[in-house]
Amino acid sequence: MPQPRWISRSTLVVAGLFAAAALTACGSDSSPAPTGSSSSTTGSATATSAGKTTSAPTTLEISDASATQLCDMIRPELSNWRVQGPTLGRIGLNALVHEWALRNGGINGHVLADKAMIDRITTKSCADVHQQAIEALELPDLASGIAF
Fold first, then answer.
1. What's the CA gap between 60 and 41, in Å, rounded?
2. CA 3, CA 104: separation in Å to the nearest integer?
3. Residues 50, 56, 58, CA angle at the centre, nearest 5°?
4. What is the signed CA dihedral for 18, 101, 95, 55, rounded to 10 degrees?
5. Burial (Cβ within 10 Å: 0-12, 13-18, ≥19) of residue 62
6. CA-derived radius of gyration, the chain
7. Per-residue pLDDT in tens (0 to 9) along the chain, 148 residues
8. How far apart are CA 148 and CA 23, in angstroms?
């Protein structure tokens, strides 16, 4: 069935994000590892002065293929963000990052817990795209553009 003309990819992404947010709000903490990734989560336990053990934040390993996918998703949006301006562009970045996270095993919770991972991934995999996105969106870093 053909897609109605007024429904854009961004509209579908935003709808998917709201659905994912609803599931996350209701749901479980057991998210699968990113698809096609040699991912692992690591954490270390540290003792506090009160004798309680707390765990350090976990670091999610993202495969090169997943990192390339994120770069490939951002690259064509750069011109749109320059034309739309930083306000609409930031909404687009947020939707794009969450769509990428959903495609890679539903790691949205990890992204929200460690927003700087998006900067680390893009700086390592596509530094030029990372810099252009920061400039187009008028952000100090991409993590600042991730809202939910």
1. 5
2. 25
3. 160
4. 80
5. buried
6. 17
7. 454 444 445 544 444 544 444 333 444 344 444 444 433 333 333 333 444 443 445 567 889 999 999 999 999 999 999 999 999 999 999 999 999 999 999 999 999 999 999 999 999 999 999 999 999 999 999 999 998 7
8. 13
The string over 74-93, giving b where at least 16 C-beta atoms fall within 10 Å of a residue's C-beta and e elsewhere, is beebbeebeebebeebbbbb
Whole-model pTM: value is 0.63
Partners of 60 in the β-ladder: 41
Neighbour count for residue 19 (Cβ, 10 Å) = 11
- Quote the tokens at residue 23: 């599931």
Which element (helix H / strand E) includes 46?
strand 45-47
- 24, 109 contact by CB (below 8 A): yes
